[in-house]
Amino acid sequence: MSDASVHSAPAGIPHAVSDLRSLDLLGQLYRTRRVPETHVAAGRHFQLMARQAGLSPRLASDPRGRGDARQRLSSALDALGGPTSPVGSVALEVIGQGRALEDWARAHGFAPGRPVATGVAQGLLEGALEILAGHFGYAAERRRASA
After folding, report:
1. Which of 34-48, 55-69, 106-120 is predicted least confidently?
2. Total-model pTM
3. For helices 66-79 and 118-136, what crossing angle results, to 10°?
4. DSSP character for 60?
5. Distance of CA 96 to the CA centre of its chain
6. How far is CA 78 from CA 6, 48, 92, 114, 131, in A?
7. How confident is the model at residue 124 (pLDDT cuts 50, 70, 90)?
8. What does the domain layout of the chain look like in residue ranges?
9. How distant, in Å, are the alpha carbons of 10, 54, 57, 118, 129 from that of 32?
10. Which of 1, 18, 109, 137 sits in a 20 to 30 Å window from 145, CA-based?
11. Are the C-beta atoms of 117 and 30 separated by less than 8 Å?
12. What is the structure's pLDDT at 143?
């Protein structure tokens, strides 16, 4: 995957309304070899579903098909342990809604007054991407390509 394709907007989404923060984060994780291309694809897939479901008021989405998108998003969140689980929450807020990972880490913690360390937050995000890759079938594509 080239750097240009990591930074481009998902198909069907004008570049002006794409969430550049999470696209850049996915691109950075790929460029630094923290995640493989299949995980980036899964993150972009999740981001597109969140946009289609209309979960972020900052992003434009077509109101047609929102119910279907919300069902698909709900299924993906279930695979992550639900929207309140650590990996579900980081995926929803950081990838799906474009919140900065550091902001998410400061706002969440495992004990009152103790935010999640940035490294732990990044590990949770990487775990979420791996689970999403399996959920969306990208992990199976990667196994077929390497066989």
Report:
1. 55-69
2. 0.77
3. 120
4. -
5. 6
6. 26, 17, 11, 26, 11
7. very high
8. 3-146
9. 21, 31, 31, 16, 15
10. 18
11. no
12. 55
